Amino acid sequence: GSGCGLRLWFHVMGLACSRLLVHPCTATDAPEDADIVEDNHPSFPSEINNLEDGESYASSSYQAARAPTERLATGSQQYAVHTCQGGGAANTGGSSARSAGCLACGMQGCGLCRVLPEGKTCDSNETGQLFREALMEDLLHPLLVAPKGWPLSQLLYHAVECKRAVANSSKEEQQRLLRLFFDGATRPHTHSMCTVVLHSQTMQVSIEPRALTSDSSTSSLPDIWQATTRQKAASQGTPLAPGVAWHHICVGQGPRHPERSGASTEVRAHVAAPGNPRQLGSILGVFRSVLAAISCSAGGSVQLHDAFATLIPRTMRVLEHLLRVEETDYKVSEAACGVQQHRIRTQWNLEGIGKQFGSHQQHLWQGRPTYRLRVEGPQGDREWVAISVTETRNFRVEVTFYTTASGHLVWSRSDGALRLLQDGRPAIVPNLLGSTFMVYVEHLRLPIGTCGCSGAVDLPSMIFSLIATQEQYPIISIRCTNIGRFPMEWFYAPLFDGTLMRMLLVRCFATEVHFNEDEVHIHLSIQIPLLSSLLKAALKVFSYKIAEIIFSTVDSDPIVVLTEAFARDAEALEQLLVQ
What is the DSSP string of 398-417? Predict the structure, then answer.
């Protein structure tokens, strides 16, 4: 739960860290398709290893986080920011050869100097300082000094511990969860209410039938769950803390819609996990800081891979199993008017995934869909793109966007034309909080392999709205606003009602993430038409293969292994900030 958004962070950061090829800002390096479009619209707001490899992470400060009264971060008064003033006085026990200008202080003698791998040193320059500030000051330090909540390393460990609890579940508990979605409630009951509690690396499942006769009875459940979970968790001796998560799921008969006959199944779910009031802001801030560091380095060649390999070595070692380094590059080139084009290209390392995580994961990643994703402005500004991501059949991924030298995203068209205001300044993409974006997913194809044959099935294009608000606390909402027709919809009519499926997805699908102080709450609601017995049986067989992945061990899940590696790197850097 607390790792929401971190998969995207790892995905983009992994692409950026594998190789950086920065070109000088000259006219000859400008993209040929770069153009300028003057815009008369009003301006948007301008702000948009101390652990050994063999040592268990649970043996360090994670154990302190298991009890809220003993956790590492309890208030800013307990922390002192480490600022090196130079000189060798602070370098007690470290080699002077290792501290010849590191990224943490730009001079000699800070704590990071003493933990650099043998022979690794960093140039003392502005770019290195920005990298250091992005990780240590913009990402880690705000969570450390927050009045409540947990440090980033503990929130990352939380995700790993939850995965471990799921992997340790019994076959009986796994079967009960599968039956919850496929068997449904029996009369006179209409719904099944399920509670899943993860704590102490174990999973507890309880399911009870309910008779809920009105839509209001189920629509109010997420608010009730969010308001009562903390008190219920404390009363049962499992308070929300790293390694503890509460899940609520309600499955049952959905309301009928007069526009289209046909029964449906509704699912409402809620996840409560530990968090930090500065969690979202620090994650958003580190992106801009890293982009600013990359943009300002356009005057000379900088190896971002080496820089991050020094600061987060465990994370980079895992990324080398997931991405083909030789096929990965990051190019920054001058577009126009002080705006730079960023283009990241990489390729998934299926061979490395298979060797490191097993054939199950290799087959899963081979089945990744191909797509084109664009994050655009509101519906009236659809032609302007903030960021585009494309994944092709040969497992290649390309990410393209434009920024200013300060790291702010700039609106552009798909052909590279830039959006300019009347005064000639680039139109800045606004802050996530307080803004509305549209996410377009097109050219979606899902590989299939049946009876020795291979191919792909076309899926409909989809449009989602992404709205971020901040009143009492930040809330990110995602809803489906449009979905195209399913291919050969008439052919699948005996299996499910495609028209009703599209209508229910647009009308009923919604997910929200609430960053409420030291808690994170995730809400999900969805309705789907009743499926035919034949299709339900086929999906049930397929679900067992999905269950093998969900309930797999921690070591065989690439995302969890990457999360644990970054947690250990973050913990080592946090220890340098705490005195």
Answer: EEEEEE-TTS-EE-B-TTSE
d(CA 487, CA 429): 35
Q: What is the pLDDT of residue 574?
A: 94
Q: In 3-state terms, what secondary structure has residue 273? A: strand
Using CA atoms in the order 207, 208, 214, 220, what is the torsion angle rounded to 10 degrees? -50
Extract the tokens encoding 143: 């969570």
Residues 306 and 312: their CA atoms lie apart, in Å, by 10
- The residues that bridge with 271 in the sheet, in sequence order, are 247, 522
In sequence order, the 6+-apart residues with CB closer than 8 A to the CB of 274 are 2, 149, 150, 154, 155, 158, 240, 241, 242, 244, 518, 519, 520
**How many residues does this entry show for the chain?**
579
Alpha carbons 230 and 273: distance in angstroms, whole number: 10
Cα-to-chain-centroid distance, residue 491:
36
Give Rg (Cα) of the chain. 25
Give the number of other CB atoms < 10 A from CB of residue 302: 22
User: How far apart are alpha carbons 155 and 137 in whole angstroms?
Assistant: 17
Q: Which of 176, 158, 135 is nearest to 71 (CA)?
A: 158
Q: What is the DSSP string of 40-66?
A: -SPPPPS----S-TTS-GGGTTHHHHT
Considering Cα of 425, then 430, then 436, then 439, what sign does the dihedral take? Answer: positive
55-96 per-position pLDDT tens digit: 333 323 333 333 332 333 333 223 333 333 333 333 333 333
Global pTM? 0.77
pLDDT in tens, 545-561: 777 778 889 999 999 99
Reading the block at residue 464, the tokens are 């989602």
Q: Cα torsion for 108, 113, 116, 120, to the nearest 10°?
A: 0
Q: Side chain identity at 104, as an amino acid letter? A: A
Whole-angstrom distance, CA of residue 253 vs CA of residue 189? 10
**Angle CA 312–316–319, to nearest 5:** 145
Q: Are 269 and 523 in contact (CB under 8 A)?
A: yes
> In angstroms, how far is the first alpha carbon of the chain from the final one?
30
Amino acid letter, 95: S
Is the pLDDT at 278 greater than 90? The verdict is: yes
